[in-house]
Amino acid sequence: MKGPLPLQGVRILEFCWVMAGPYGTMLLARLGAEVIKVEGHGRTDLLRRAVVWPLPEAAPKRIPLNEGMSFNSLNLNKKSVTLDLTKPEGVALAKRLAALSDVVVDNMRPDAMTKIGLDYETLRRLRPDIIVASSSSRGRGGPESDYLGYAFVHHGIGGGAHVTGYPDDHPSHVTADVDLMNATGLAYAIVAALYHRARTGEGQFIDYSQCEGVSSLMGELLLGYELDGEIPERMGNAHPRFAPHGVYRCWGSTAGWRSRSTRTRSFGSSRGSWGDRTSPATPASRTRGPERRTRPSSTESSRRGPASGTATGWSRSSARPASPRRHPVRAGTSWPTPT
After folding, report:
1. How does pLDDT run across 120-149, given as a tens digit for each residue?
2. How many other CB atoms are found less than 10 A from the CB of residue 324?
3. Which positions ≥6 away from 51 have C-beta within 8 Å?
4. How far is the C-alpha of 16 from the C-alpha of 199, rounded, in Å?
5. 241 DSSP 8-state letter
6. Residue 226 within a domain
7. pTM for the model
């Protein structure tokens, strides 16, 4: 990229660890900001020793400091310093750094920075236009502000787990993805605060709730409930308006599976019949037809064999479920056993 980066000249003091904070500041560093990562003497970022596992070893092995792959990926382009924040001298140095910084960001408990004297009210006396961003589990000031949590907790409380998975199965959690999404949201909030300061000269405090960050990704589902009272449910790979929409096992292909998302009339005209409909002309009609009634369950979607029918016309409604280790045989051809 020619010319200065968008955030060149912006200094960010980071008191973050693991993923939900460091990924966001890494994005800001890639935009040109100078990011200084602060860690404690006795408690460095635990990802410095993190290792991807399982590996061929029987148990996770201890790796040398600073060789954690996740840490190196999430802390690109950053500077680093260790301070003993349990001592007045360490806190004084942190305040000196904050006074020279545009942004101070943490992803600790809501009261952690206050206890060591690095809260927003203290820091704004050092620099009136400073931006302080704090990312915590439930945010500050509410009845659950003292609750702690990690990604899978935020995913559940925020509602994401309830709509993730198959209709006949339990809610499905994700972990690292939630941290990365919340870190991205935090980075956007900081960029917006910097833009506001450039226009008005005002700093501000950003109170970021990671549970609410998950909820913000479900806007259309929450709006649907507000408008018509519809409670969203798990749908697997299906779609409320498009059909067919999913991952299907294929005939005559070593690839085994193909994804399909149909939004136009093309499927009805090019693939023949669809269940008991000869021409599923619109997405709405397809979702009201057999596709809606035979939406795959968790068992069928992962173990279903090929549907019966001709090469140009086939029916999902006549598909047969298969066992985990043997798939149905048709015309002398069996599907490979999953490994």
Report:
1. 999 999 999 999 999 999 999 889 988 988
2. 10
3. 60, 61, 63, 68, 69
4. 28
5. S
6. no
7. 0.75
Domain count, the chain: 2
- 175, 201, 219: which is the final residue of a domain? 219
Please report, for residues 254, 306, 310, 327, 338, the alpha-carbon distance to residue 330 in angstroms, rounded to integers and kept in the order given.
15, 9, 12, 10, 18
100-109: average pLDDT: 96
Q: Residue 36: name the closest of 114, 88, 94, 109 by CA.
A: 94
The model's confidence at residue 70, banded by pLDDT at 50, 70 and 90, is confident
Strand arrangement, sheet containing 34-39: 78-82, 34-39, 11-15, 103-106, 131-136, 204-209
pLDDT tens for residues 197-255? 999 999 999 999 999 999 999 988 999 899 999 888 899 888 888 888 888 888 776 66
**Annotated catalytic sites, by residue?**
179
Q: Domain range for residue 210?
A: 11-219
Query: Per the domain annotation, does 239 fall within a domain?
Result: no
Residue with tokens 């369950």: 297
Instruction: Return d(Cα 255, Cα 249) in angstroms, integer.
Output: 9
Query: Per-residue DSSP letters for 124-177?
Result: HHH-TT-EEEEEESS-SSSTTTT----HHHHHHHTTTGGGSS-TTS-----SHH
Length reported for the chain: 339
